[in-house]
Amino acid sequence: MLTTGSKTLAVFAKELVGLDNTRVIARMLPRMDNMEKCAQLGIEQKISLRFKGHFPKN
Question: Where along the chain do its domains lie?
């Protein structure tokens, strides 16, 4: 498992997307630019996790 932010997603996606037995799941804020970035990198929206912040501490 690898975790990275949306700013560096392209670095890893170009190496990992399409590899056998490898699934890339992007976790990011639900912003249009993030969704467009996933589409450009070949990451399907059905396997991206989009969260809306701020999260409570309890």
Answer: 9-50
